[in-house]
Recover the amino acids of this structure.
Protein backbone atom coordinates (compact mmCIF):
# COMPACT_ATOMS: atom_id res chain seq x y z
CA UNK A 1 0.00 0.00 0.00
CA UNK A 2 1.30 3.39 -0.97
CA UNK A 3 2.17 5.57 2.01
CA UNK A 4 0.05 8.42 0.67
CA UNK A 5 -3.03 6.20 0.90
CA UNK A 6 -1.96 4.76 4.23
CA UNK A 7 -1.36 8.13 5.88
CA UNK A 8 -4.61 9.62 4.64
CA UNK A 9 -6.08 10.17 8.10
CA UNK A 10 -3.02 12.09 9.29
CA UNK A 11 -3.73 14.90 6.87
CA UNK A 12 -4.92 18.29 8.01
CA UNK A 13 -7.21 19.85 5.43
CA UNK A 14 -8.23 23.49 5.01
CA UNK A 15 -11.22 24.47 2.89
CA UNK A 16 -11.33 28.03 1.59
CA UNK A 17 -14.82 28.31 0.17
CA UNK A 18 -18.08 30.16 0.88
CA UNK A 19 -20.19 28.20 3.34
CA UNK A 20 -22.74 26.80 0.91
CA UNK A 21 -24.01 23.40 -0.12
CA UNK A 22 -20.79 22.48 -1.94
CA UNK A 23 -18.82 23.32 1.19
CA UNK A 24 -21.15 21.20 3.36
CA UNK A 25 -20.92 18.23 1.02
CA UNK A 26 -17.16 18.62 0.97
CA UNK A 27 -16.65 18.92 4.72
CA UNK A 28 -18.89 15.95 5.45
CA UNK A 29 -16.95 13.84 3.00
CA UNK A 30 -13.60 14.89 4.51
CA UNK A 31 -15.02 13.88 7.87
CA UNK A 32 -16.01 10.47 6.46
CA UNK A 33 -12.56 10.04 5.00
CA UNK A 34 -11.30 10.73 8.48
CA UNK A 35 -9.00 13.75 8.08
CA UNK A 36 -9.04 16.65 10.48
CA UNK A 37 -10.26 19.82 8.78
CA UNK A 38 -11.10 23.48 9.11
CA UNK A 39 -13.13 25.88 7.04
CA UNK A 40 -12.43 29.52 6.34
CA UNK A 41 -13.90 32.26 4.17
CA UNK A 42 -13.07 34.76 2.73
CA UNK A 43 -9.50 34.05 1.60
CA UNK A 44 -7.35 34.82 4.66
CA UNK A 45 -4.04 36.63 4.43
CA UNK A 46 -1.93 33.77 5.76
CA UNK A 47 -1.98 30.01 5.54
CA UNK A 48 -0.99 28.38 8.86
CA UNK A 49 1.77 25.78 8.73
CA UNK A 50 -0.33 23.07 10.37
CA UNK A 51 -2.29 22.42 7.17
CA UNK A 52 -1.08 19.80 4.69
CA UNK A 53 -3.71 20.25 1.99
CA UNK A 54 -5.73 23.30 0.97
CA UNK A 55 -8.87 23.19 -1.17
CA UNK A 56 -9.56 26.66 -2.49
CA UNK A 57 -12.50 28.04 -4.43
CA UNK A 58 -10.94 29.89 -7.35
CA UNK A 59 -14.26 31.24 -8.68
CA UNK A 60 -14.16 35.05 -8.91
CA UNK A 61 -10.76 35.22 -7.22
CA UNK A 62 -7.63 36.96 -8.36
CA UNK A 63 -4.65 34.75 -9.03
CA UNK A 64 -2.29 37.22 -7.36
CA UNK A 65 -4.27 37.26 -4.10
CA UNK A 66 -4.37 33.46 -4.01
CA UNK A 67 -0.65 33.25 -4.78
CA UNK A 68 0.15 35.59 -1.92
CA UNK A 69 -2.07 33.58 0.41
CA UNK A 70 -0.48 30.24 -0.47
CA UNK A 71 3.05 31.52 -0.98
CA UNK A 72 3.64 32.80 2.57
CA UNK A 73 4.73 29.49 4.00
CA UNK A 74 8.01 27.81 4.84
CA UNK A 75 6.72 24.47 3.64
CA UNK A 76 4.95 24.35 0.27
CA UNK A 77 1.34 23.12 0.55
CA UNK A 78 -0.60 20.67 -1.59
CA UNK A 79 -3.38 22.66 -3.23
CA UNK A 80 -6.55 21.74 -5.07
CA UNK A 81 -8.63 24.25 -6.97
CA UNK A 82 -12.41 24.09 -6.72
CA UNK A 83 -13.82 25.30 -10.03
CA UNK A 84 -17.22 26.76 -10.76
CA UNK A 85 -16.47 27.09 -14.47
CA UNK A 86 -14.35 24.92 -16.70
CA UNK A 87 -13.36 27.68 -19.10
CA UNK A 88 -9.86 28.61 -20.29
CA UNK A 89 -9.45 31.66 -18.05
CA UNK A 90 -10.38 29.73 -14.88
CA UNK A 91 -8.14 26.84 -15.92
CA UNK A 92 -5.34 29.28 -16.68
CA UNK A 93 -5.68 30.57 -13.14
CA UNK A 94 -5.42 27.10 -11.60
CA UNK A 95 -2.15 26.76 -13.52
CA UNK A 96 -0.98 30.13 -12.31
CA UNK A 97 -1.57 29.39 -8.65
CA UNK A 98 0.12 26.01 -9.11
CA UNK A 99 -2.86 23.83 -8.11
CA UNK A 100 -2.01 20.12 -8.02
CA UNK A 101 -5.53 18.93 -8.87
CA UNK A 102 -9.02 20.30 -9.39
CA UNK A 103 -12.52 19.53 -8.15
CA UNK A 104 -15.65 20.66 -10.01
CA UNK A 105 -18.66 22.38 -8.47
CA UNK A 106 -21.16 21.31 -7.35
CA UNK A 107 -18.90 19.24 -5.10
CA UNK A 108 -20.08 15.65 -4.63
CA UNK A 109 -18.73 13.14 -2.14
CA UNK A 110 -17.31 10.92 -4.87
CA UNK A 111 -14.09 12.38 -6.24
CA UNK A 112 -12.87 14.22 -3.12
CA UNK A 113 -10.69 11.31 -2.00
CA UNK A 114 -9.19 10.75 -5.45
CA UNK A 115 -8.42 14.42 -5.98
CA UNK A 116 -6.74 14.56 -2.57
CA UNK A 117 -4.56 11.59 -3.38
CA UNK A 118 -3.69 12.64 -6.93
CA UNK A 119 -2.75 16.11 -5.70
CA UNK A 120 -0.60 14.74 -2.89
CA UNK A 121 1.11 12.35 -5.25
CA UNK A 122 1.71 15.00 -7.92
CA UNK A 123 2.98 17.47 -5.34
CA UNK A 124 5.26 15.02 -3.52
CA UNK A 125 6.76 13.93 -6.85
CA UNK A 126 7.24 17.54 -7.85
CA UNK A 127 9.15 18.16 -4.62
CA UNK A 128 11.18 14.99 -5.01
CA UNK A 129 12.08 15.77 -8.62
CA UNK A 130 13.05 19.30 -7.63
CA UNK A 131 15.35 17.99 -4.91
CA UNK A 132 16.89 15.42 -7.20
CA UNK A 133 17.44 18.00 -9.91
CA UNK A 134 19.33 20.25 -7.49
CA UNK A 135 21.43 17.31 -6.37
CA UNK A 136 22.22 16.30 -9.95
CA UNK A 137 23.17 19.85 -10.89
CA UNK A 138 25.59 20.00 -7.97
CA UNK A 139 27.04 16.68 -8.89
CA UNK A 140 27.51 17.70 -12.51
CA UNK A 141 29.16 20.87 -11.36
CA UNK A 142 31.54 18.88 -9.16
CA UNK A 143 32.44 16.47 -11.93
CA UNK A 144 33.21 19.46 -14.14
CA UNK A 145 35.49 20.96 -11.46
CA UNK A 146 37.40 17.73 -10.92
CA UNK A 147 37.86 17.44 -14.67
CA UNK A 148 39.24 20.96 -14.96
CA UNK A 149 41.62 20.28 -12.07
CA UNK A 150 42.78 17.06 -13.68
CA UNK A 151 43.67 18.84 -16.92
CA UNK A 152 45.61 21.51 -15.00
CA UNK A 153 47.62 18.83 -13.22
CA UNK A 154 48.19 16.88 -16.44
CA UNK A 155 49.52 19.96 -18.16
CA UNK A 156 51.77 21.05 -15.29
CA UNK A 157 53.17 17.64 -14.40
CA UNK A 158 52.99 15.81 -17.70
CA UNK A 159 51.01 12.94 -16.16
CA UNK A 160 48.08 10.87 -17.41
CA UNK A 161 44.45 11.54 -16.57
CA UNK A 162 44.33 8.53 -14.26
CA UNK A 163 47.44 9.71 -12.39
CA UNK A 164 46.02 13.20 -12.09
CA UNK A 165 42.83 11.84 -10.57
CA UNK A 166 44.79 9.65 -8.13
CA UNK A 167 46.72 12.72 -7.03
CA UNK A 168 43.52 14.66 -6.32
CA UNK A 169 41.99 11.72 -4.51
CA UNK A 170 45.04 11.16 -2.30
CA UNK A 171 45.16 14.85 -1.42
CA UNK A 172 41.49 14.76 -0.52
CA UNK A 173 42.04 11.73 1.71
CA UNK A 174 45.03 13.13 3.54
CA UNK A 175 43.33 16.49 4.06
CA UNK A 176 40.08 14.75 5.01
CA UNK A 177 38.04 16.65 2.48
CA UNK A 178 36.25 16.00 -0.79
CA UNK A 179 37.80 15.68 -4.26
CA UNK A 180 35.67 18.67 -5.21
CA UNK A 181 37.34 20.81 -2.55
CA UNK A 182 40.81 19.82 -3.76
CA UNK A 183 39.79 20.41 -7.37
CA UNK A 184 38.52 23.81 -6.34
CA UNK A 185 41.87 24.67 -4.70
CA UNK A 186 43.82 23.48 -7.74
CA UNK A 187 41.70 25.64 -10.04
CA UNK A 188 42.09 28.64 -7.73
CA UNK A 189 45.84 28.17 -7.46
CA UNK A 190 46.14 27.87 -11.20
CA UNK A 191 44.22 31.05 -11.77
CA UNK A 192 46.28 32.95 -9.17
CA UNK A 193 49.54 31.67 -10.65
CA UNK A 194 48.60 32.54 -14.18
CA UNK A 195 47.40 35.99 -13.09
CA UNK A 196 50.77 36.55 -11.40
CA UNK A 197 52.53 35.77 -14.66
CA UNK A 198 50.43 38.35 -16.46
CA UNK A 199 51.17 41.28 -14.20
CA UNK B 1 -47.87 9.50 -8.12
CA UNK B 2 -50.30 6.80 -7.13
CA UNK B 3 -50.31 8.27 -3.69
CA UNK B 4 -53.95 7.69 -2.97
CA UNK B 5 -53.87 3.91 -3.55
CA UNK B 6 -50.51 2.59 -2.34
CA UNK B 7 -46.85 3.36 -1.70
CA UNK B 8 -44.89 1.79 -4.55
CA UNK B 9 -41.40 0.53 -3.88
CA UNK B 10 -39.06 -1.16 -6.34
CA UNK B 11 -37.26 -4.46 -5.75
CA UNK B 12 -34.19 -5.18 -7.83
CA UNK B 13 -32.90 -8.64 -6.94
CA UNK B 14 -32.10 -11.58 -9.22
CA UNK B 15 -34.33 -14.64 -9.16
CA UNK B 16 -32.15 -16.33 -11.75
CA UNK B 17 -28.42 -16.56 -12.43
CA UNK B 18 -25.26 -16.97 -10.36
CA UNK B 19 -26.23 -14.85 -7.35
CA UNK B 20 -29.91 -15.83 -7.26
CA UNK B 21 -29.76 -17.97 -4.08
CA UNK B 22 -28.84 -15.02 -1.94
CA UNK B 23 -30.84 -12.43 -3.85
CA UNK B 24 -33.99 -14.55 -3.63
CA UNK B 25 -33.55 -14.55 0.14
CA UNK B 26 -33.31 -10.76 0.00
CA UNK B 27 -36.60 -10.58 -1.97
CA UNK B 28 -38.24 -12.76 0.68
CA UNK B 29 -36.94 -10.52 3.45
CA UNK B 30 -38.42 -7.49 1.71
CA UNK B 31 -41.76 -9.19 0.99
CA UNK B 32 -42.09 -10.40 4.56
CA UNK B 33 -41.52 -6.90 5.92
CA UNK B 34 -43.97 -5.43 3.40
CA UNK B 35 -46.65 -7.96 4.38
CA UNK B 36 -46.10 -7.33 8.08
CA UNK B 37 -46.43 -3.58 7.57
CA UNK B 38 -49.52 -3.97 5.40
CA UNK B 39 -51.10 -6.38 7.87
CA UNK B 40 -50.88 -3.61 10.45
CA UNK B 41 -52.68 -1.21 8.15
CA UNK B 42 -49.80 -0.08 5.96
CA UNK B 43 -48.23 3.34 6.27
CA UNK B 44 -50.64 6.16 7.04
CA UNK B 45 -53.50 3.89 5.97
CA UNK B 46 -52.04 2.96 2.59
CA UNK B 47 -50.37 -0.37 1.79
CA UNK B 48 -46.84 -0.76 0.47
CA UNK B 49 -46.77 -2.24 -3.03
CA UNK B 50 -43.67 -3.98 -4.40
CA UNK B 51 -42.73 -3.65 -8.06
CA UNK B 52 -40.12 -6.31 -8.75
CA UNK B 53 -37.82 -6.96 -11.71
CA UNK B 54 -35.38 -9.81 -12.23
CA UNK B 55 -32.00 -8.68 -13.59
CA UNK B 56 -30.96 -12.34 -13.97
CA UNK B 57 -27.58 -11.73 -12.24
CA UNK B 58 -26.47 -9.73 -15.31
CA UNK B 59 -24.63 -6.65 -14.07
CA UNK B 60 -25.71 -4.21 -16.81
CA UNK B 61 -29.40 -5.15 -16.37
CA UNK B 62 -29.48 -3.67 -12.87
CA UNK B 63 -28.91 -0.14 -14.17
CA UNK B 64 -31.43 -0.53 -16.98
CA UNK B 65 -34.11 -1.91 -14.69
CA UNK B 66 -33.50 0.77 -12.05
CA UNK B 67 -34.12 3.32 -14.80
CA UNK B 68 -37.29 1.48 -15.81
CA UNK B 69 -38.57 1.36 -12.22
CA UNK B 70 -38.13 5.09 -11.88
CA UNK B 71 -39.31 6.20 -15.33
CA UNK B 72 -42.06 3.72 -16.20
CA UNK B 73 -43.25 2.57 -12.80
CA UNK B 74 -42.81 5.97 -11.16
CA UNK B 75 -41.01 4.40 -8.22
CA UNK B 76 -38.65 6.59 -6.21
CA UNK B 77 -37.55 4.11 -3.56
CA UNK B 78 -35.65 0.97 -4.60
CA UNK B 79 -34.28 -1.93 -2.59
CA UNK B 80 -31.75 -4.03 -4.43
CA UNK B 81 -28.39 -5.48 -5.41
CA UNK B 82 -26.00 -7.99 -4.00
CA UNK B 83 -22.73 -7.58 -5.88
CA UNK B 84 -20.85 -4.28 -5.81
CA UNK B 85 -20.62 -4.26 -9.59
CA UNK B 86 -24.42 -4.21 -9.83
CA UNK B 87 -24.66 -1.43 -7.24
CA UNK B 88 -22.25 0.63 -9.32
CA UNK B 89 -24.71 0.30 -12.23
CA UNK B 90 -27.64 1.54 -10.17
CA UNK B 91 -25.75 4.36 -8.45
CA UNK B 92 -25.62 6.88 -11.34
CA UNK B 93 -29.28 6.21 -12.16
CA UNK B 94 -30.58 6.91 -8.66
CA UNK B 95 -28.31 9.95 -8.33
CA UNK B 96 -29.44 11.44 -11.64
CA UNK B 97 -33.11 10.81 -10.84
CA UNK B 98 -32.72 11.64 -7.14
CA UNK B 99 -34.26 8.36 -6.03
CA UNK B 100 -33.54 6.60 -2.74
CA UNK B 101 -31.70 3.31 -2.96
CA UNK B 102 -31.43 0.79 -0.14
CA UNK B 103 -28.46 -1.57 -0.46
CA UNK B 104 -28.88 -4.43 2.04
CA UNK B 105 -25.56 -6.18 1.45
CA UNK B 106 -22.11 -6.18 2.97
CA UNK B 107 -19.56 -4.54 0.68
CA UNK B 108 -15.98 -3.25 0.56
CA UNK B 109 -16.56 0.34 1.70
CA UNK B 110 -15.12 3.55 0.19
CA UNK B 111 -18.39 4.84 -1.11
CA UNK B 112 -20.92 7.41 -0.07
CA UNK B 113 -23.87 8.66 -2.01
CA UNK B 114 -26.63 10.80 -0.54
CA UNK B 115 -29.04 8.59 -2.51
CA UNK B 116 -27.97 5.30 -0.95
CA UNK B 117 -28.71 3.81 2.49
CA UNK B 118 -26.17 1.05 3.14
CA UNK B 119 -27.55 -1.77 5.28
CA UNK B 120 -24.76 -4.37 5.17
CA UNK B 121 -21.44 -4.55 6.95
CA UNK B 122 -18.32 -2.74 5.77
CA UNK B 123 -14.89 -4.26 6.50
CA UNK B 124 -14.38 -2.65 9.89
CA UNK B 125 -17.57 -4.37 11.08
CA UNK B 126 -16.73 -7.93 10.08
CA UNK B 127 -13.15 -8.40 8.78
CA UNK B 128 -11.40 -7.30 11.94
CA UNK B 129 -13.26 -9.63 14.33
CA UNK B 130 -12.77 -12.51 11.86
CA UNK B 131 -9.03 -11.94 11.48
CA UNK B 132 -8.61 -11.84 15.25
CA UNK B 133 -10.54 -15.04 15.63
CA UNK B 134 -8.70 -16.94 12.89
CA UNK B 135 -5.23 -16.07 14.09
CA UNK B 136 -5.97 -16.83 17.72
CA UNK B 137 -7.97 -20.02 17.17
CA UNK B 138 -6.22 -21.57 14.16
CA UNK B 139 -2.86 -20.01 13.42
CA UNK B 140 -0.94 -17.44 11.46
CA UNK B 141 -0.79 -18.82 7.91
CA UNK B 142 -3.87 -17.93 5.87
CA UNK B 143 -4.59 -18.76 2.22
CA UNK B 144 -6.80 -16.30 0.25
CA UNK B 145 -9.23 -17.31 -2.48
CA UNK B 146 -11.76 -14.95 -4.06
CA UNK B 147 -14.05 -14.21 -6.96
CA UNK B 148 -12.60 -11.98 -9.59
CA UNK B 149 -14.17 -8.58 -8.86
CA UNK B 150 -13.87 -5.54 -6.66
CA UNK B 151 -15.30 -6.83 -3.38
CA UNK B 152 -12.81 -9.70 -2.98
CA UNK B 153 -9.81 -7.50 -3.92
CA UNK B 154 -10.62 -4.80 -1.43
CA UNK B 155 -11.80 -7.23 1.20
CA UNK B 156 -8.55 -9.17 0.90
CA UNK B 157 -6.51 -5.98 1.09
CA UNK B 158 -8.15 -5.16 4.41
CA UNK B 159 -7.80 -8.74 5.63
CA UNK B 160 -4.13 -8.91 4.67
CA UNK B 161 -3.47 -5.79 6.67
CA UNK B 162 -5.37 -6.86 9.76
CA UNK B 163 -3.71 -10.27 9.62
CA UNK B 164 -0.28 -8.69 9.46
CA UNK B 165 -1.05 -6.72 12.62
CA UNK B 166 -1.98 -9.98 14.32
CA UNK B 167 1.31 -11.51 13.23
CA UNK B 168 -0.37 -13.52 10.47
CA UNK B 169 0.88 -14.27 7.00
CA UNK B 170 -0.87 -14.68 3.63
CA UNK B 171 0.52 -17.88 2.13
CA UNK B 172 -1.37 -17.79 -1.17
CA UNK B 173 -3.84 -15.67 -3.09
CA UNK B 174 -5.97 -16.80 -6.07
CA UNK B 175 -8.95 -15.30 -7.89
CA UNK B 176 -11.63 -17.06 -9.93
CA UNK B 177 -14.34 -16.21 -12.39
CA UNK B 178 -17.89 -16.10 -10.97
CA UNK B 179 -18.90 -19.05 -13.14
CA UNK B 180 -16.05 -21.35 -12.02
CA UNK B 181 -17.17 -24.98 -11.47
CA UNK B 182 -15.68 -27.65 -9.21
CA UNK B 183 -13.03 -28.66 -11.78
CA UNK B 184 -11.85 -25.06 -11.95
CA UNK B 185 -10.79 -25.31 -8.30
CA UNK B 186 -8.77 -28.52 -8.63
CA UNK B 187 -5.41 -26.79 -8.95
CA UNK B 188 -5.88 -24.31 -6.13
CA UNK B 189 -7.12 -27.03 -3.78
CA UNK B 190 -4.02 -29.10 -4.60
CA UNK B 191 -1.95 -26.04 -3.80
CA UNK B 192 -3.80 -25.52 -0.50
CA UNK B 193 -3.21 -29.15 0.47
CA UNK B 194 0.48 -28.70 -0.27
CA UNK B 195 0.89 -25.36 1.50
CA UNK B 196 -1.19 -26.54 4.50
CA UNK B 197 -2.40 -23.15 5.77
CA UNK B 198 -4.02 -22.71 9.19
CA UNK B 199 -7.20 -21.51 7.49
CA UNK B 200 -8.55 -20.40 4.13
CA UNK B 201 -10.11 -16.96 3.78
CA UNK B 202 -12.67 -17.13 0.97
CA UNK B 203 -14.40 -14.26 -0.78
CA UNK B 204 -15.77 -16.51 -3.49
CA UNK B 205 -19.44 -15.62 -3.91
CA UNK B 206 -22.53 -17.00 -5.63
CA UNK B 207 -22.83 -20.45 -7.17
CA UNK B 208 -19.04 -20.92 -7.38
CA UNK B 209 -18.84 -20.59 -3.59
CA UNK B 210 -20.87 -23.78 -3.27
CA UNK B 211 -18.66 -25.47 -5.86
CA UNK B 212 -15.53 -24.45 -3.98
CA UNK B 213 -16.63 -25.79 -0.58
CA UNK B 214 -17.71 -29.06 -2.18
CA UNK B 215 -14.49 -29.42 -4.15
CA UNK B 216 -12.48 -28.77 -0.98
CA UNK B 217 -14.41 -31.47 0.84
CA UNK B 218 -14.10 -33.92 -2.09
CA UNK B 219 -10.32 -33.43 -2.06
CA UNK B 220 -10.18 -34.38 1.62
CA UNK B 221 -10.38 -30.88 3.12
CA UNK B 222 -11.92 -30.82 6.60
CA UNK B 223 -13.38 -27.64 8.05
CA UNK B 224 -12.69 -28.85 11.59
CA UNK B 225 -8.96 -29.01 10.82
CA UNK B 226 -8.43 -26.21 8.31
CA UNK B 227 -11.65 -24.18 7.95
CA UNK B 228 -12.75 -21.95 5.12
CA UNK B 229 -13.56 -18.59 6.69
CA UNK B 230 -15.86 -16.20 4.91
CA UNK B 231 -17.81 -12.98 5.25
CA UNK B 232 -20.36 -13.94 2.62
CA UNK B 233 -21.08 -17.68 2.88
CA UNK B 234 -24.42 -17.86 4.62
CA UNK B 235 -27.22 -20.26 5.58
CA UNK B 236 -28.55 -20.50 2.01
CA UNK B 237 -25.20 -21.55 0.65
CA UNK B 238 -24.42 -23.92 3.53
CA UNK B 239 -27.75 -25.61 2.79
CA UNK B 240 -26.70 -26.08 -0.85
CA UNK B 241 -23.19 -27.24 0.12
CA UNK B 242 -24.60 -29.83 2.51
CA UNK B 243 -23.81 -30.37 6.18
CA UNK B 244 -21.17 -33.02 5.53
CA UNK B 245 -19.02 -30.73 3.38
CA UNK B 246 -19.81 -27.57 5.34
CA UNK B 247 -19.05 -28.69 8.88
CA UNK B 248 -16.36 -26.70 10.67
CA UNK B 249 -16.32 -23.76 8.26
CA UNK B 250 -16.58 -20.26 9.67
CA UNK B 251 -18.48 -17.11 8.75
CA UNK B 252 -18.45 -13.62 10.27
CA UNK B 253 -21.68 -11.65 9.86
CA UNK B 254 -24.04 -9.35 11.76
CA UNK B 255 -26.82 -11.93 11.68
CA UNK B 256 -27.19 -15.70 11.80
CA UNK B 257 -30.43 -17.64 11.69
CA UNK B 258 -29.46 -19.39 14.90
CA UNK B 259 -29.44 -16.24 17.04
CA UNK B 260 -31.42 -16.91 20.16
CA UNK B 261 -33.44 -13.79 20.87
CA UNK B 262 -37.09 -12.84 21.02
CA UNK B 263 -36.79 -10.55 18.00
CA UNK B 264 -35.19 -13.29 15.93
CA UNK B 265 -37.63 -15.98 16.98
CA UNK B 266 -40.50 -13.70 16.03
CA UNK B 267 -38.85 -12.96 12.69
CA UNK B 268 -38.22 -16.63 11.91
CA UNK B 269 -41.75 -17.63 12.88
CA UNK B 270 -43.25 -15.05 10.55
CA UNK B 271 -40.84 -16.06 7.79
CA UNK B 272 -41.79 -19.71 8.11
CA UNK B 273 -45.49 -18.90 8.06
CA UNK B 274 -45.04 -16.95 4.84
CA UNK B 275 -42.54 -19.07 2.93
CA UNK B 276 -42.99 -22.51 4.46
CA UNK B 277 -39.42 -22.88 5.69
CA UNK B 278 -36.58 -20.83 7.11
CA UNK B 279 -33.91 -22.64 5.11
CA UNK B 280 -32.84 -19.60 3.07
CA UNK B 281 -32.85 -16.97 5.83
CA UNK B 282 -29.48 -15.20 5.62
CA UNK B 283 -27.82 -12.04 6.92
CA UNK B 284 -28.60 -10.28 3.62
CA UNK B 285 -32.23 -11.37 3.95
CA UNK B 286 -32.36 -9.99 7.47
CA UNK B 287 -30.71 -6.74 6.33
CA UNK B 288 -33.32 -6.29 3.58
CA UNK B 289 -36.12 -7.04 6.04
CA UNK B 290 -34.76 -4.49 8.51
CA UNK B 291 -34.22 -1.84 5.84
CA UNK B 292 -37.83 -2.11 4.68
CA UNK B 293 -38.96 -1.62 8.28
CA UNK B 294 -36.64 1.37 8.70
CA UNK B 295 -38.01 2.85 5.50
CA UNK B 296 -41.63 2.30 6.58
CA UNK B 297 -40.95 3.98 9.91
CA UNK B 298 -39.45 6.97 8.10
CA UNK B 299 -42.38 7.11 5.67
CA UNK B 300 -44.83 7.01 8.57
CA UNK B 301 -43.09 10.12 9.82
CA UNK B 302 -42.83 12.05 6.55
CA UNK B 303 -46.02 10.92 4.82
CA UNK B 304 -44.42 11.56 1.45
CA UNK B 305 -41.99 9.78 -0.85
CA UNK B 306 -39.77 12.80 -1.48
CA UNK B 307 -36.16 11.57 -1.39
CA UNK B 308 -34.67 14.45 0.58
CA UNK B 309 -37.42 14.39 3.21
CA UNK B 310 -37.19 10.63 3.60
CA UNK B 311 -33.41 10.74 3.92
CA UNK B 312 -33.66 13.29 6.71
CA UNK B 313 -36.10 11.02 8.53
CA UNK B 314 -33.94 7.94 7.99
CA UNK B 315 -30.60 9.30 9.19
CA UNK B 316 -30.15 8.37 12.83
CA UNK B 317 -33.18 6.08 12.86
CA UNK B 318 -32.83 2.93 14.97
CA UNK B 319 -34.62 -0.40 14.67
CA UNK B 320 -34.81 -3.49 16.84
CA UNK B 321 -33.76 -5.91 14.13
CA UNK B 322 -33.56 -9.70 14.48
CA UNK B 323 -29.77 -9.26 14.94
CA UNK B 324 -30.24 -6.72 17.76
CA UNK B 325 -30.53 -2.98 17.62
CA UNK B 326 -29.23 -1.30 14.47
CA UNK B 327 -29.09 2.37 13.58
CA UNK B 328 -28.47 4.37 10.42
CA UNK B 329 -25.34 6.46 10.95
CA UNK B 330 -26.16 10.07 10.02
CA UNK B 331 -22.46 10.68 9.25
CA UNK B 332 -22.25 8.29 6.32
CA UNK B 333 -25.63 6.61 5.52
CA UNK B 334 -24.19 3.24 6.56
CA UNK B 335 -25.55 1.23 9.50
CA UNK B 336 -24.38 0.45 13.03
CA UNK B 337 -24.41 -3.36 13.06
CA UNK B 338 -23.75 -6.29 15.33
CA UNK B 339 -20.80 -8.55 14.58
CA UNK B 340 -20.73 -12.28 15.18
CA UNK B 341 -18.57 -15.27 14.31
CA UNK B 342 -20.15 -18.67 13.80
CA UNK B 343 -19.04 -22.19 12.92
CA UNK B 344 -21.10 -24.75 10.98
CA UNK B 345 -21.97 -27.78 13.12
CA UNK B 346 -22.66 -31.39 12.04
CA UNK B 347 -26.28 -30.54 11.28
CA UNK B 348 -25.29 -27.75 8.88
CA UNK B 349 -26.40 -25.00 11.26
CA UNK B 350 -24.27 -22.02 12.27
CA UNK B 351 -23.32 -22.04 15.94
CA UNK B 352 -22.34 -18.60 17.16
CA UNK B 353 -18.97 -18.62 18.93
CA UNK B 354 -18.35 -14.95 19.51
CA UNK B 355 -20.07 -11.60 19.28
CA UNK B 356 -19.02 -8.00 19.86
CA UNK B 357 -20.48 -6.33 22.91
CA UNK B 358 -22.36 -3.61 21.05
CA UNK B 359 -23.21 -2.52 17.52
CA UNK B 360 -20.10 -1.33 15.67
CA UNK B 361 -20.09 2.10 14.04
CA UNK B 362 -19.61 1.80 10.28
CA UNK B 363 -16.36 3.35 9.02
CA UNK B 364 -16.55 2.98 5.23
CA UNK B 365 -13.40 5.03 4.57
CA UNK B 366 -11.10 3.18 6.93
CA UNK B 367 -7.86 2.36 5.06
CA UNK B 368 -6.14 0.60 7.96
CA UNK B 369 -8.39 -1.00 10.57
CA UNK B 370 -6.56 -1.44 13.86
CA UNK B 371 -6.94 -4.94 15.20
CA UNK B 372 -6.72 -3.89 18.82
CA UNK B 373 -9.52 -1.33 18.64
CA UNK B 374 -11.61 -1.78 21.79
CA UNK B 375 -14.88 -1.75 19.85
CA UNK B 376 -13.95 -5.05 18.20
CA UNK B 377 -13.59 -6.88 21.50
CA UNK B 378 -15.73 -9.96 21.46
CA UNK B 379 -17.35 -12.05 24.12
CA UNK B 380 -17.91 -15.77 24.16
CA UNK B 381 -21.40 -16.94 23.40
CA UNK B 382 -22.42 -19.77 25.71
CA UNK B 383 -24.05 -22.92 24.43
CA UNK B 384 -27.45 -21.86 25.70
CA UNK B 385 -27.20 -18.71 23.61
CA UNK B 386 -28.99 -16.40 26.02
CA UNK B 387 -31.09 -13.51 24.99
CA UNK B 388 -28.33 -11.61 23.28
CA UNK B 389 -26.44 -14.29 21.37
Amino acid sequence: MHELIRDLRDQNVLLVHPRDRSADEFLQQVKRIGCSFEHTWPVPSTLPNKFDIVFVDVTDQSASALKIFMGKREKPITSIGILGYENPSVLEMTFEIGAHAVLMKPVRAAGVLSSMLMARRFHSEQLRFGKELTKLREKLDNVQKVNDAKFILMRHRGITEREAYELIRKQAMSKRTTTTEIAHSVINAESILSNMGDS
Amino acid sequence: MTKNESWKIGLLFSKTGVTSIIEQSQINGALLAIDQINAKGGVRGLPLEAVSYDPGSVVSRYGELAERLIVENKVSVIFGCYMSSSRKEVLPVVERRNALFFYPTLYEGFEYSPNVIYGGACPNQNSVPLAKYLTSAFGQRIFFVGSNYIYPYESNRVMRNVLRQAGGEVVGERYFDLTTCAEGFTDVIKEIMKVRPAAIFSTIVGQSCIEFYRAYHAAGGDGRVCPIASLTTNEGEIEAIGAEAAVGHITAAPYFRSISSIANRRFLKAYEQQFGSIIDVTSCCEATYSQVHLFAAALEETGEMDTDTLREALLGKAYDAPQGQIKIDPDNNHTYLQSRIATVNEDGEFVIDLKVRRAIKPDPYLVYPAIHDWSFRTQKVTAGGGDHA
Q: What stands out?
A: The two ends of chain B are 44 Å apart (CA to CA). The CA atoms of residues 141 and 169 of chain B lie 5 Å apart.
